[in-house]
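Input record (Table S2, row 504):
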Amino acid sequence: LYYRLFFLLLTLWTLHPKAQAQSAYWQQQVNTQIAVQLDDVHSMLHGTVHIDYTNNAPDTLRFIYLHIYPNAYANDRTAYAQQAVENGNTRHYFSNEQDRGYIDSLKFVVTNSQLVQKSAGYVITKNIDVIQLILPEPLLPGQRLQIETPFRVKIPKVFSRLGHLNQTYQISQWFPKPAVYDAKGWHPMPYLDQGEFYSEYGSYQVAITLPENYVVMATGNLQESAEQQWLDSLALSYRNHKPIYSPKDTSIIPSASTLKTVTFTEENVHDFAWFAAKNWIVENDTFFLDGIDKPITAYACYSPKHQQAWKYSLDYIQGATRGYSQRVGLYPYRTIKAIEGPLEAGGGMEYPTVTIIAPVRNGETLNTVITHELGHNWFYGILGSNERDYPWMDESVNSYYENKIAPSAFSITGRNNRYNDSYLAYAFAGSANRLEPSDTASEVYSDVNYGLDVYAKTPLLFDWLAAYMGQDQFDAAMKAYFDKWKFKHPQPEDFRTIFAMVFR
Ligand SMILES: [Zn+2]
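Output record (zinc ion complex):
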């Protein structure tokens, strides 16, 4: 019955004057093409980025904020560096100059819709990883322009997300990228470890050139069939010879002298990350979801010394994809990948269609982390909320589903202590009178409370909301929220509106 009532309400709601005002929702379109070459001797990237920017706002733009996040690692006074010290992590602060990172060689050219090219200057804001690109002429509502610049990145050692450990590379938050402009205005934000991101949707086409014996895992779909065949052959040989695979250190595999270029494309995503290593075990498999006619290819890549923990990783990936697809909404992409890397920012980090997982000891923990990180394809990837200001909209809602899906998706023991762990953490913080409100911005939380409130307390609040609404109504509201806001930027009020509307 609630379904019928729900659809009736949905119809009535679209007739409501306030809802009609909301139909004027707009968002910017940002399509990105990058060509980049990895110099793995000096840990440098040499690239050019081409950004096709459409101004769908009712406002004229005279500048565009761009994030140039590798500069977060440039010195000990950046927002990232200071936050790390406040949170008790002094690795970057006391690091050597040569282990830090930066981006330089920017030289912007802007092309307007009449194909007139002009060079464009930029202003560095109070944060050296945020710049304001001054447009040579105003960008009117509905108009489009092309922004192009070369760039060079010195890849830091792994302090947070972007980085390398010897010749294993995690290339994320790495290229010049527009900040979001939405109905609330510009959202420039310096890179932080504690506090995530907010980005515009569009298509990506990224061509990566590097020595040919690297395996590359990235956002989106690989274009070269020869590279695809090579990955398939690696996966097949591991499947056939599993027990005899001997652990190798990445530092002792020399890089091939011949280079290759691998290209990845994806639509309807708001970021692009890639990861490369020479010693990964590669596993892959295809699977179908109810409601789609094309298979999804799952990849798991990890170092040989952790093959025991990763033994069932393809099952964890499939289980998470099915669980979120059933409970929230269908997975819309053709690939889903989990790779192991030397991450320092938490146990895992999500990017569209690809996620990086820090080394873990056992399969059960790995299942939990993979489920959580791949779940971010829904709460971050498809539902592109402002993570920095409203961490509950991605981390807390995602943790609520992780607690439900990870134990059932692929459980060795069938037990789930996550609920009890979360409650204990919540009760502990509460008894010490240290809780903070659930709608606190990421960087305002103390580091302890960021973990407690965002990942433990607030997921419990969603359990209580589900109990209060009834699980059926909660599920219906979440599906309605997904359908209305997929590939868009939902705000807290949009979430509340749908939940209040469905609940009767
Ligand atoms: Zn998360």
